[in-house]
Amino acid sequence: MDIHVVQPGDTMYRLAQQYGVPMDRLIQDNQLPDPSHLVVGQTIVVQYPELTHTVKAGDSLYSIAQTHNTTAVQLLRNNPSLHGRDLIYPGQVIVVRYDGQPQGTLTVNSYAYPFIDRGLLRDTLPYLSLLTPFTYRFNGGTLIPLQAGTLVNAALQSRVAPVFHLSNLDEQEQFSSELARELLASEEDQKELIEQILRAADQKGYQWVDVDFEFVRAEDAAAYAQFLARLRQALAPSGRPLVAALAPKASANQPGRLYEGIDYRLIAQSVDFALLMTYDWGYPGGPPMAVSTLPEVRQVVEYALTEFYPNQLFLGIPNYGYNWTLPLRPGSQARSVNNVEAVQLAWDRRAAIRYDQRAQAPWFRYVDDSGAEHEVWFEDARSIQAKLRLALDYGLYGVGYWNLDRPFPQNWVVLNASANIRSEM
């Protein structure tokens, strides 16, 4: 796989000639909304088929997979134009294998809201090991239901393990220190909540459990780890692993409300896995910068590895960017953008995309119709490749995307080329 950065004068026809790859293959692999709209600085992923199969009457993905000693799900990953479906026709060329070897193996998780577009879900399920509907909540010892049956069933049908997700979000959609404190102060409430989690997991078909408490108070750190240990012990007979999603700390004593109640050492002894939420350095109320800056991500991973084993860790990867209006004003908030939308915005505003080598992230500036300047940071094939390489270089167990609800076709192509995707079913 190569990643081409669009230069002035590039067209898809010229790129096809330059790399010796059919133009329709480039367009399909990158799922370009309009192949004639190439932005200077945009990335184009180039893959080189090593083995293809021309569909004959009576073929199915399963039969093709058997013929070539692979799996139907791998054929779906290699052919994103199938959109996750076994809908093939005679004469169609299916890529069985690409040139080059993945660097390693990863378990791939992604969070998704229950209202995710079903077509987008179908497109991306082949690339997942785990799917985590967001989120179950609680009030004291009472679990608040989540209508996620469609996601759970879709995951199970695709042999993707669904994950039960519990958070301390309150009714105002805010992570609540007080909600966490009330639970952690009552062993009786914890016992009742854990029993309800087990019942829901059994009834709905969840295979894993993920707990994401944020803004836990410093004085509640030990109690939080104890709650996780109790939950893990309760899950053990069913064989369900427990994951804790953790604020991205670079040291044990890192100050700040987000970090002080999250004790990596205690939590490492209380869970099976941890997801490092290595994003939001760039955030809506802050200055323009990359959402996930690679040097800072590396610091978090290196600190986490002093308390966890590599095969306990998932690296968090953002599937979003932000659009800031300049100059920044008190109380102003950047607007969230998806990565495909960001490239389209650069085209619409005739802005060249730049790449920050330190952060390993793309960005650009433009002026809107009112004369206001904007700065946009997002993810592209290069920035995703850098994060995946970091996870693979450190031997981490997997990666976790926040979240699946935004389209980003290039991500899945780069993931498929970079790593074998582990099944958890």
Task: Record keyword descriptors for this entry.
globular; 20 strands; single chain; alpha/beta; five-stranded antiparallel beta sheet; eight-stranded parallel beta barrel; 425 residues
Overview of the structural elements:
It is a single chain. With 425 residues, the chain is α/β, with parallel strands linked by helices. 32% of the residues lie in helices and 23% in strands. The strands form five sheets. It has an eight-stranded parallel barrel with strand order 5-6-9-10-11-12-13-19, surrounded by four helices. It has a five-stranded antiparallel sheet with strand order 15-14-18-17-16. The chain has a two-stranded antiparallel ribbon with strand order 1-2. Strand 14 (321-326) and strand 15 form a beta hairpin. It is globular. The mean pLDDT is 96.
